[in-house]
Amino acid sequence: MKIPYSILKKLVPQLSLSPVEVANLLTLNSYEVDSVLDISSAYVGVVVGQIKSIQPHPNADKLKVTEVSIDDNQTPLVIVCGASNIQIGNKVPVATIGTQLPNGMNIQQASLRGVDSFGMLCSAKELNLSQESEGVMILSDSFAVGAALSQVLNLNEVVIDIDNKGLGTRAADSSSFYGVAREVSILTNYHLNDIALAHLPRQKPGYSVKIQTRLCQYYSLLEVKDLSQYAFDSNVLSKGNYRVDLYVQTEKYQLDPVIVNTLKTLHIPQYHPAIDLGNYITHEIGQPMHVFDIEKVAGKTLIVREAQDGETMISLDGTELILQKGDIVITDAEKIIALAGIIGSNQAAVSDGTTGVLVESAHFDAQQIRATARRLKLLTDAAKRFERGIPSYIADQALARYAYFLEQAQVTVAGYQSWGRKNNEKKSEIRLDYRYVNSYLGVELDSNIITKLLERVGCEVVHSRSEEHTILPPIWRLDLTTPEELIEEIARLYGYDKIPIRLDISLLPIKNNPLFEIQRSISRSLVAQGYTEIMTYPYSTQGIFRMKNPVNQEAPYLRTTLVPHMEESLKKNLLAREELSLFEISHVFGEKEEVFLVLGYISRTVKTSSEVAHQLYQTLFRSFLQMGVKYTNITRIVEDNIILVLYQEQEIGKIFATKGVLEINLSTLVAISGHQQEIFSPLAKYPAVKRDITVQVDSVITAQQVYDTIVSLATSLCELVYYKSIYQEGIYNKYTFGLQFRANDRSLSDEEVNTIMDSIEKGF
Amino acid sequence: MDELQNIQIELEQDLTTLDPVQLRSKYLSRKGIISELFRNLATVPTEEKSAYGKVVNELKMKIDSVIKSNSNDGQIQQERLNLFPVNQQILNYQSGHYSPISLLLYRIQDIFAGLHFSVEIGPELEEEQYNFDALNIPKDHPARDVWDTIWVSNGDFMTKLLRTHTSPVQVRYMQHHQPPIRIIAPGKVYRYEATDATHETVFHQVEGLMVDTTTSIATFKGVIHHFFQQLFDQEITMRLRPSYFPFTEPSFEIDIKINDTWLEVAGAGMVNRKVLENSGITDPKIQGFAFGFGVERLAMILYGIDDVRLIHSANIDFAQQFGKELI
Fold it and tell me: With the C-alpha atoms ordered B105, B106, B109, B111, is the resulting torsion angle positive or negative?
């Protein structure tokens, strides 16, 4: 929402703050101001010039060499120009050397096909005064030579731009000049002027309205005849363009110059006074309006109804709209004349020859307007306003304002009538306990201070009983419906900076999510082992869950594994490195959403795939040991060099040896490991006895299997079994393991240990 | 044997003039004189072999003992260190590194742990109910447009979405825990939007939630001020500005002043009563705040990263600049 500072000054005349100060005040206490733009700053260096001579260019047919005076006392400037619409004596905008135009072009002294040129004659488009334009902009003869263009065209406005995209419920009351002015008045305590309104006439219009849908609560019409005196020269009425001529010859346009200047400043396209006036009032007080050409309306009855599936209409900009049940339309006796609250039909559009209009000011269902506008991709200003919510009392205010401006222009209003009910938002009272206010804010405010703050916003305290009060919010604040919303008003007007910074919180036990804990501890261990953490995008070419609107069309699935991304990262990063150790921890989206860890190892010098697998497994094993995970287990190769990693007999991951990648399901690991409590054991009082055992087995038997067998055969006196060596002999492996025996209550005798050793040997 | 005698004479001289290192090099190294003498043993006639060997051995022992007695320990140590193989592997050893995001997340966790906040996490593939409805963002509400959502389906009727913020964790947690509640919820969030140096489709947020019977805006100011002060390790000037989020009321933005510039760093507010009710907390005495901030944005401020797309680039030159701090 953009508001010219001059409009703000008119509504709050005492305002002594600069535009930037107003912007800061609003940002800190109400809503965010996006920018403060000084329009004239875009026209520094552009002055009024008069063409003194025009000669053909010696070296180029399409160029002309002109002499242009920008100072009556000095020699004219030589300027080369390509336009064909200029004549001697024309006054034109001249961009002098050193100027930067609004479109970013820098004006420098230049030689054009051998002729030096000292500036540029500008088109309206180059000056950002029109979306399209042909030739150089021709200015009014009344303008003084050498005057700044911003001065003569009144381009000296400062515009405050409020960001109301994410404003939520406050978007409605901040979307009009009057709403913003009211806010400034509340914050500064300066008086807010009323907006001048005319009395709406008692006579009824020659048209009646039938509302046939609940989606329209209220519909009012103003009938205006006899607009023929406002007929325009048709070649200046070009659709969608800013009416350049109007800046120059305002005498042709009998609307208040404030309106003309404002529309121009805000880049609102101008079409016809009847339309432009409606657009201005929409911005001024927030009510969208629509204007129909009275001669194009068939019959004497307008109907507001829901469209039927497949009905069509042609919108103002000429596109065919295919409607659905639920869309709200306005029809006359023959045709649809508007898609309610969104856009009109070109079948009833105001044009050059319009002699009379029907002005609509109505209230349509916000959700339906939103749904229709989204579906048809017609997010017009009117549609956005309706979906934000508009208090219905302003529908009549808008027509009274319209009538006021017509009166000023000595145009009579033929009739007015309204249909439907206005009171769809009943003002509802809110019960507010002032102790709750203080508890919420963390302050100790007196009751009368809270009341005063509420009254500043426009609230009324209608009933009080000790600390409990009944509050009636102002009708223009549709968003105030709960005690907490009132607390927000109190907080921002009291000032968030005055609320103390308090840090007196109580103790509370910490209980972290174990999955997050394990991520952190395993990362710590991997980093210590030289692994570097990476992050990759979660999108993939295959998976289970497919994105309806993928960010990358080639990878429309959510990944179910981290392996391919790790492989790619290894390849990508190996350049100029001898070896790489990487890891990533991320959510993956298989049948269940789970957290995976992936390790990647690659080296230029190493190695067989079994060496790589060993390296990865060793890293994982060390990490597990450091994390206090007691015991892991690895099975033999399954197929294609994939090795399964087991934990407590359950698969928790795989090693892809040839890829140099190991993937672990941390969710499963957490689920089966749980938290192990460390328990103190008394220190040993008696010495340990150590023995070795050597076992010769077929080479298909793994060390793990030998180890498991020894552990299963040893008695409880055996406190430790550890691997010592392996010796290969043909198809046999000779493993040597160390065993350590100890009793808690005595020194073990050799005989006792020998007996155990014998039974283990027999076991094999 | 003549040769041996000559060597014996030469050695007598060397024993007085050469230092132990030179001695070792000249006589005992692999190409040294003694080694050569031993190699020559093969060419000595059989009857002389025994005597020859004995003399050479005596020579060697003599040199050894002189080296030992003439060396002080320091020299020996130095010598041994020089011999220690400093190979390429050690020179090239790289320590591991955390991603700057993890690094920051763990710091954030530690600061909030000091205020007794636990860590909770939630699913990234989220239900519409948790991401929007329960957070007071009903269907067809204009507020939904603020979050550009990536919708996901598994081919059946089920439609889910990639969570657009970490706020759903608030609801999930409150459904299963009674106040007093104090959690942070870090994690990835997703947006459907065009990427550039400051916009990504996937990034990290940290949600905060503190709910009990006394938590106020003043408490919030205390907690968040303490947090930023710890994070930036300096005095922080902070301000709250009114804002709008459907799941908090009142809502505000938090700005902090760094190098004389106000930076918007977090959104926050008092948890909307509708959200408390949607999470099963109906006791009107329960109140509290929630906040959320973007981790990438903080990382960019703290570490001076100029392009957010580097975070997910898996570029090692980038990754290895971070994570040297101990965690």
Answer: negative
Q: Which residue of A has its CA nearest to B91?
A: A578
Q: What is the pLDDT of residue A166?
A: 58
Greater pLDDT, A706 or B163 = B163
Q: What is the pLDDT of residues B63-90, one digit of tens each?
A: 888 777 766 655 555 555 555 555 555 5
Of B242, B270, B273, the CB nearest to A31: B242
A412 touches chain B (CB under 8 A): no
- Taking an 8 Å cut-off on Cβ atoms, the answer to whether A550 and B150 are in contact is yes
pLDDT at residue B16, rounded to an integer: 78
Interchain contact A479–B (C-beta under 8 A): no
CB half-sphere exposure, A490, CA atoms < 13 A: 32
pLDDT at A231: 46
Q: Is the model more confident about B326 or about B217?
A: B217
Q: What is the mean pLDDT of residues A548-556?
A: 91
Q: How confident is the model at residue A252 (pLDDT cuts 50, 70, 90)?
A: very low
User: Cβ of A710: how many Cβ atoms within 10 Å?
Assistant: 19
Tokens encoding B323: 């994570």
Contact A516 B119 (CB under 8 A): yes
Q: Cβ A440–B109 below 8 Å, yes or no?
A: no
Degrees to nearest 5, angle at CA B67 with B66 and B69: 65
pLDDT (tens digit per residue) in A41-54: 888 899 999 999 99
3-class SS of residue A277: helix
Three-state secondary structure of A661-715: EEEEEHHHHHHHHCCCCCCCCCCCCCCCEEEEEEEEEECCCCHHHHHHHHHHHCC
Q: Do A524 and B226 touch (CB under 8 A)?
A: no
Q: How far apart (Å, rounded) are the C-alpha atoms in residues B271 and B209? A: 8
B273 interface with A at CB cutoff 8 Å: yes
CA dist B278 and B170 (Å) reads 11
The CB density around residue B93, as the number of other CB atoms within 10 Å, is: 8
Separation of alpha carbons A77 and A535, rounded Å = 62
Contact A392, A478 (CB under 8 A): no
Contact B121 A509 (CB under 8 A): no
CB contact under 8 A, B97 and A527: yes
DSSP state letter for B162: E
**A433 interface with B at CB cutoff 8 Å:** no
pLDDT class of A497 with cuts at 50, 70, 90? very high
Q: What is the pTM of this model?
A: 0.79
Taking alpha carbons only, the member of A297, A284, A271 closest to residue A360 is: A297
What are the residues whose beta carbons fall under 8 Å from the beta carbon of A637, sequence distance 6 or more? A643
Sheet strands side by side (includes A650-656): A532-533, A579-589, A593-603, A661-665, A650-656, A642-647, A633-639
Which residues of chain B neighbour A499 with C-beta distances below 8 Å?
217-218, 221, 240
Q: What pLDDT is recorded for position A198?
A: 93
B180 in A contact zone (CB under 8 Å): yes
Q: What pLDDT is recorded for position A233?
A: 40
User: Considering only alpha carbons, which residue of chain A is nearest residue B139?
Assistant: A367
The whole-angstrom separation of Cα A624 and Cα A647 is: 11
Q: Nearest-CA distance from A534 to chain B in Å?
A: 5
* Contact between B103 and B326 (Cβ < 8 Å): no
Hey, of B217, B253, B274, B296, which one would you mutate to test binding to chain A, going by the most A CBs within 10 A of its CB? B217
* Mean pLDDT to the nearest integer, A420-437: 82
Confidence (pLDDT) at A509: 92
Which of A31, A499, A529 is closest, CB to CB, to B218?
A499
The answer to whether residue A508 neighbours chain B at the CB level (below 8 Å) is: yes
- Nearest CB to A488 within list B93, B117, B249: B249
pLDDT tens track for A82-120: 888 888 998 999 999 988 887 778 888 888 888 899 999
